Amino acid sequence: MTSALITTPSQRQSLLPRESLTWIFAAQLAVLLPHFTHLPLWLVGAWCIAVYWRLEVFHGRREIPGRLAKLLAVSLVVAGLALTYRRWFALEPMVALLAVSFTLKNIELVSRRDAMLSLMLAYFLAATLFVFEQTIPYALYGLFCAVIITAALIAQHGGSRAGPGRALGLSTKLLAQAVPIMLLLFVVMPRLGPLWAVPQNTAGASTGVSDSMSPGDFSNLSKSDKPALRITFDGPLPPPEQRYWRGLVYTHFDGRRWSEPGARGSFANQGSRSERPLPAVGPRYRYQVIQEPTHNPWLFALARPNSESVGVRETSDDTLIYKMPISNRLAYQVHSWPRESVSGSKTLSVWEQRRHLQLPNGGNLKARQWAEARLSEGLGAEEISSRLLALYNRSFTYTLRPPLLGKNSVDEFLFSTRQGFCEHFASSYVFTMRAAGVPARVVGGYQGGEWVEQQEYLLVRQYDAHAWAEIWLPQRGWVRVDPTAAVAPERIRDGLQSAAAEEFMQDALLPLHKIAFVSRLRLQWDMINYRWYQTVVSFDAERQQGILQRLLGEVSPLRLALFIAAPVLLALIGLLLWLNFSNRGPALPPASRLYLRFCRRMARAGIARNPAETPGDYARRVELELPRLGPMALRITAAYEKAAYGDDAGAEKQLRRLLRGFWPIRLAR
Amino acid sequence: MFIKSANGTGADVGADEASTKKIRGFLFGKRWSPLFSQRWRRWLGRRLPPSQSVTLDHRKLFVLPTSAGLGFLLVIFLLWLLGTNYTNNLVFATAFLLLGLLVVLPVHTFANLSGLRLQLHETLPTFAGDYAQAKISLSATGKRSREQIRLAWPGEEGALVDLPGETKGSTAGEVNIDLPLVRRGRVRAPRFRIESRFPLGLFKCWSWIDLDIEFLVYPQPKSAGPLPYGASAAEGDQARTWSVGGDDFAGLKNYQPGDSLRHVAWKQYAAGRDLYSKEYASGNDARLWLDWDLLAGRDVETRLSNLCAWVLDAERAQVAYGLRLPGKTVAPGLGVAHKQRVLSLLALFPVQGVSQ
Predict the structure, then answer these.
(1) Which of A594, A603, A602 is nearest to A644 (CA)?
(2) Does A576 touch chain B (CB under 8 A)?
C-alpha cells in the first residue's frame, strides 16, 4: 500500500519509536556502567556522543551519518583502541571492542533488526562482567542487567501499551520462569575444561604481600581490612601461634629493601615435586585455602606444604606457587607437615649458602660490629639469636607508626629509634644474623586469622600481613624465628587489633571495627560471601559429580535422563493446566450448564444445535425431525427457560431431574 | 482495542518487509517447487479446512524461532564458550538463564494466540485493482490479554491488533485486513496468516487461516468519455420519455413562478384558461442508458470497465441511469442499492461466451 513511502530516507529514521530507543540506551548504559571503571575515558565519551547524535536524528535535527562519516568514526575508534591497548590478546581490549561495536551501532540504529542486534550484544557484554568480578553484588547487578535488556526486547515488540512498568514486570516474570531451568542446567550440564588458552584479566594492580619488602610496606597493608584468605580445615586446626601462612621468602637485601629476584616468574624454573620426597607419615594439617585475587602468583600455606591442586607447584623454599598471576579467587588444597618430621637433606648447597648470607657491601656498620662482637664471644647461632631477641624484648616497642629511617636503616632502628613494625624487626634480625654468619631469610605472608564460628573457617585479612625470619641451623634445618613475638607476643596470639589497639585502623574513614555490632555484621557478610564462593563460584566437575551422586544415588545415563525429564514433564503439565485454565471464560450459571449438556446429548443423537439457534427453535426442530423425542425436548427447553430467565429454583431442580432420564441415543433407536 | 492500520504507522513496516516477501514465496511456492507447494496447500486444507469461524489451538498453530531467536541461540553458545574457557560459573549461569528463557518463550508465544477465535464479520465489495477489505472479529475467553497479533494476506502488510485482557473474563476486537485484487468477479480469498512474535520477538507463532472469504470485485473503472446522454436508441414508446429542453413542442403544464415568460401559453391564457407554460423536449430517448452496444469494438473487459466508470459518473452526477447488457436490462434508477445491483451485474458478467 504505501511501500513507496516507507523506503524514503526521511521515513526510515523514525522507524524505531522513542520508547524503543530509550530502552536500548538504558540497557546499554546498565551494561556499560560497571565496565566504565576499566574502559578508557574516550570510549565513554564516544558512547555518549553516539547516543546524543542518534537522539538528534530522532528529533529530526540531524541526519544519519553518511558513509564517509561512518568510515571516519570507525577509523578514529580503531586508532583509539590501538593507541590505548598495546596488547590485543587480553581481556580488556576485547571488552572495549564490544563496547566500541555498541557505540558504532548506535549511530546507525535504524531498523528493528539493528535494535535486536544491539540488545543481543548487550546480553553478551553483561556476562563478560563476571569474568572480572564474581561477587554477590556483581551477580545481582548482572541479573538486573538481564531484566533491563529483556524489558528492552519486550519494548521492541510491545505496542503502544507497553509502558516501562509493564515491560519490566513481564521481563521479571519471564526470567523468573527461566530460573528453575537455569538451576537444573547449572547442576546437570557437564563442565569441560578450558577449550583453548584465553587471555586473563591482567590489569588489576597486585595487592597483598608483594615481591619486595621495604620499611613501611607491611604497615600500609595493616590499614586494610579486606579479606585475603579463607581457610577451612579438614581435621585439626593449628594453634594461633603456629598460624604462619608463608607466601614467599626474601633473600636479597640492598641496604633498604628486601626482595626476591625472579619470584614472579619462578613457576617454570622450580624443581619438580619428585625431587623433594614427601615424608612417609601423614600430614598434620589438611586444609583448603580460598585466596582473593592478588595478581601475583604466590600462594599461602603452612610449612612445609604440598598441594595436589592443578597448577600449583611447590618451590625449594617450601612455598607454593601458581602457574600464573591470580586474577580470580582461587581455591587450592594443601597438606602440611611440620618441618621437624620432614626428612630432607640437612645441608645447604654452596649456592644456597651464598644466597642466604648475601649482604650489601657497605653500610649498617654498627649492626655488623654487634654481630662480630657476639661471634668473638664464641656464641653459637642459637645464642646469638636469643641475645638479639632479648635485646628486642628489653628496649624495643611495637608500633604501627614507626619513625622514618634514613640510609642505614638497620643501624638506625637497632640503636636509635627502636620503634618498629614487623618488617623492621624481621629485616634487622636477618641482617644481624647474616652478619654473624648464620644463613637467614625474611619470610612474608600472613599470621593469624579470625575464626568464624558458624562456617568454621579461618578468615585472614590484609592487616594480618606479617614478616618474620627463618635461620638455618645445621642440626635442624630451617627454623622459624619471629622477632616480633619477642616484642609483642599478643600480636602473634591475638592479632594486630589487640597488639596495637590505639593505632589499629586509625586512618579508616569510619572506625567501624570499634563497633561490635558492625564487626559482627561484617563477619556475617563475609560468611555469606564465603558460602557463595563455595557453592556457586567454585562449583566444578568434581562438586557436580558429588551433588549428582547424592541426588541420584549413582550417576547413570538413565537416572540422569529421568532427573532432567521429570521436572520438564511436570512443568509441561503445569503449563497445559494453566493454558486451559486461563482460556476458560467466566463460569456459566448452572441452568446453562445443564442445557448445554442437553445439547451435547442431542448432538450425539444426530441433531446438533446450530450456532445461532434459539432454544425454542431448536426444540421445535427436534420435534420435527425426531418426533419421539419432541415432547421431552420441549419440556426440557421450557424448564431451562424458566430456570435461566425466571429465577426459579424449582425449575432448575426440575431440569436436573428431566435430564437425568434423558438419553436421546437410546430413545431414538 | 488498538488497531494499527497498516498504512498508519511506519514503525512496523520496514522490519517486516523481508518477512512478507518470505510469506509470499512460502505460500505461492516461489522458493519451492510447485509440486511441493501444491502438497503443502493440500496438507493445510486437510489440517485447517475452510470454516466461517476458527478457534486456534495446538492443532492449528505452528511455533518456530525467528532469525533473532537463532541469533539469541548463538549468543548463548558464545556465552557457554566464554564460561567454559574461563571456567566461570556465573557466565555459565547467565548462559543457562538465557537458555531457560528460550525454553519458556515459545509457550508464551503460543499462549498468546491459542484459544483465539476468528470469525469473518463482513467483506466489502471493491473494484479490481483496488484493495478489498475483510472485517474479522477476534475474540477469546479468559483473562489473558492478547498482544501484537498480525493478520495479513501473503505479501501484504496486514494489520496489527492488541486485545487487552479484561476482568470480565473475555476479550474481543475487530480488525480490517486488506487484499489487493486484480480480477473482477467473485474472488475466493486465499488463506491469510495470523502471526504473533510476542513477547520478545525470538519466536513466532502462526497459522494459515481460511475463513471462507469471498469478495465481490467490480470491474476496474476506466473512463470512456462523458456520460452517453440520449445516445441509446429508444425501444418502443413506453420507454421513451421526453426530456425537458429540446426543440419539439411537448405539451402544456401549469405555470410556475420562474418559468420563462417566452414559454407562457398566451393564446390559452387569452382564451380565459389558467396560465400555462409550453414545454419543449428533445426527440431522442432522454433517459440515460449505459448500453453494452454503445461500446462496440472493444474487448469485453474494457467494455465492462467503461460501463463501470459511467455508473460511478452517473451516480456522482445524481442522474438516473439504466444498464443494458446482452440478455440483461436494469431499468434506470439511482441510489446505493441500484448501484450495487448494476455493479454486481458487471462484476459477474461471464468472462467468455459473449460475442459481438
Answers:
(1) A594
(2) no
Give catalytic status of residue A466 as yes or no.
yes
Round to whole Å and give the CA distance between A448 and A303: 14
Residue with cell 523514525: A14
Determine the residue type at A230.
R
The 3-class SS string of chain B reads CEEECCCCCCCCHHHHHHHHHHHHHHHHCCCCCHHHHHHHHHHHHHHCCCCCEEECCCCCCEEEECHHHHHHHHHHHHHHHHHHHCCCHHHHHHHHHHHHHHHHHHHHHHHHHCCCEEEEEEEECEECCEEEEEEEEEEEECCCCEEEEEEECCCCCCEEEEECCCCCCEEEEEEEEEEEECCCEEEECCCEEEEECCCCCCEEEEEEECCCCEEEEECCCCCCCCCCCCCCCCCCCCCCCCCEEEEEEEEEEECCCCCCHHHECHHHHHCCCCCEEEEEECCCCCCEEEEHHHHCCCCHHHHHHHHHHHHHHHHHHCCCEEEEECCEEEEEECCHHHHHHHHHHHHCCCCCCCCC
**Residues in B touching A157 (Cβ below 8 Å):** 148, 197-201
Q: Which of B10, B89, B162 lies at the smallest CB-CB distance from A539?
A: B89
Instruction: Give the model confidence (pLDDT) of A258-304 as tens digits.
Output: 988 776 665 655 444 445 666 667 778 899 998 988 888 899 999 88
Which of A117, A182, A193 is facing B97, going by the closest CB pair?
A182
- A59 in active site: no
Question: Distance (Å) from the C-alpha of residue B201 to the closest C-alpha of chain A?
Answer: 6
The owner of cell 518463550 is B105
> CB of A4 within 8 Å of any CB in chain B?
no
DSSP 3-state of A336: strand
The answer to which of A350-354, A407-411, A551-555, B57-61 has the lowest mean pLDDT is A551-555
pLDDT at B249: 62
Smallest CA–CA distance from B55 into chain A, residue: A583
Task: For A149-214, give the DSSP string.
Answer: HHHHHHHHH--TT--HHHHHHHHHHHHHHHHHHHHHHHHHSPPP--SS-------SPP-SS-SEE-
Which residue in chain B has the smallest CA separation from A533? Answer: B89
Terminal CA-CA length for chain B: 54
Q: Is A422 a catalytic residue?
A: yes
DSSP secondary structure code for residue A413 in this structure: I
What Rg do the C-alpha atoms of chain A give, in angstroms? 39
State the ipTM, two decimals.
0.73
For B103, which of A117, A156, A181 is closest by C-beta distance?
A: A181
Q: Which residues, at least 6 apart from A49, have a Cβ–Cβ distance to it below 8 Å?
A: none
Block residue for cell numbers 606444604: A305
- pLDDT category of residue A31 using cuts at 50, 70 and 90: very high
Which residues in chain B (50-69) have CB-CB distances under 8 A to chain A?
A: 53, 68
Q: How many residues are recorded in chain A?
A: 669
Whole-prediction pTM value? 0.73
Size of interface A-B (CB pairs under 8 A): 195
What φ, ψ does residue B14 adopt, rounded to 5°? Answer: -60, -45
Place of cell 540531524: A62
pLDDT digits (tens, 9 = 90+) for B47-73: 888 888 888 888 889 999 999 999 999
d(CA B66, CA A153): 14
Residues of A in contact with B103 (CB under 8 A): 178, 181
Cβ contact A157–B96 (<8 Å): no
Q: Suggest the residue from A177, A323, A326 to mutate for an interface test with chain B (most B CBs closer than 10 A).
A: A177
Beta bridge partners of A244: A447
Grid-cell match 618474620, residue found? A468
Among A422, A424, A464, A526, the active-site one is: A422
